[in-house]
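Predicting holo structure, flavin-adenine dinucleotide bound.
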Amino acid sequence: MKELSQRFEGVRFAPFWPDTTTPPVTASSMNGELLCDIAIVGAGFTGLWAALKARERYPDARIAVLEGRKLAQAASGRSGGFAAPSISHGVMNAVTRWPSEAEKLIRLGRENLNQMEDDLATYEIDAEFERSGKLNLARTPWESEGLASMAETYKDFGIEGTFLSGNELDGWVNTPRYSAGLFEPNYAYVNPAKLVVGLARACIERGILIFEGAWVDHIKQRADRVQLTTQNDYVLARKVVLASNADRPLLGRLRSTIIPIFDYSIMTEPLSSDQLSAIGWQGRYGVADSGNQFHYSRKTEDNRILWGGYDAIYYAGSKRNDGLLDRYESYAQLEQNFLATFPELSDVKFSYAWGGIIDTSARLTHFVGAAMGGRVAYAAGFTGQGVTASRFAALSMLDLLEGAETERTSLRMTRSLPVPFPPEPFRNLAIRWAQADLAKEDENGRRSSLLKLMDRIGIGFGS
Ligand SMILES: Cc1cc2nc3c(=O)[nH]c(=O)nc-3n(C[C@H](O)[C@H](O)[C@H](O)COP(=O)(O)OP(=O)(O)OC[C@H]3O[C@@H](n4cnc5c(N)ncnc54)[C@H](O)[C@@H]3O)c2cc1C
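Done. Tokens:
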């Protein structure tokens, strides 16, 4: 295992966000059996939005959320908290993969972010929501061309964006690593653990039962109910929402639609205003670069810098376990790239380092569907952009359970399943091959024949 530098001395190997909040007290025990109208598996953003929105629709329903871990321990509490005005993993992904639906997807993504902000106000959830914009950066001439073409596409769809090149980047961020940028003002941020905790609190205040440590092992239909079995209890529900994200799906049909991709982050200590001035990063906007292997970076409320991404690690056999949530090689790589970006911060210390699991689908966007005669709805595949899309997916699942035909349920993007990943050992080989070609493209700007073939059949790989 690679040694970490002195900058990591005293680092806490855990996500930062849960340390900023106190979770509410959840329900104690099911006492063997629980009957309810709606049972939800998973208490991340998706499951909690589903519970809260179900309460709006059904004021008297008995609603229970079964969470196998503790609140905010999975992806939602580990995320970067970039809250995109998009449900399609960005505008360019919508335009490339669903050109005939792109306009609708883009509008729905923007509406979803606005509605999420309204919901946070209505439910008095302090998730440190701030709409401070995002600066996309380019390191190479081909990335710069990519951003220029993205700026054109934004114009076509009436999306605000300012292309910055050369000296125009001065005053935004002072770094030798990047040569162009595209600033989009309509991009928001949350403290993701505060969002989980706030949603959970709002649910509990409205009579929704949340059980932690309630890992569901089996799902089966029993007459007109669905039975969920945990180690000690079972739940009989009229309707079930599956919001288990990157964990092994309970429904066999979904098992090859997503793969677990590990993504790692490091975070500095709070920076002084002198340190922030030295790197020219004065505003509250987040920053992300544009390569296939990209970093995302933002400030916390107390001015630490989060620096995550780049590595997207797949462990053969779709292995997922807590032991893989730390990877020193990734932390060291992130540190190296951080210092190349901000050489003025060479004396900085890192206070937190952690990993999380992304549920990558082969087209980078979520999908929803129904099973067991419409009694069960599922959503998965958010890839690295689920902070806002999870809310949209939750609403889509409730529509499906109602049998309602809505604009959400009519989307081709969400209603078809993504191309499945091949079985092992081909899965591992294909991912390694694609990753090597993506890294080469970052260095030489040339797309390999394999990647072009994947483009033609609509398969992508990313985080
Ligand atoms: C490191 C990292 C950074 C990210 N950064 C961003 C970002 O900046 N912006 C963005 O938009 N997206 C980001 N994402 C993605 C985003 O965090 C996820 O898409 C989103 O949190 C998904 O929410 P969720 O509720 O579906 O999943 P989760 O938060 O993973 O919740 C699923 C829950 O289901 C529970 N569960 C699973 N199976 C069972 C079972 N059988 N029984 C009981 N419980 C079960 C799990 O314990 C878990 O708590 C990031 C992800 C990671 C890992």
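The first strand starts at residue 33 and ends at 41.
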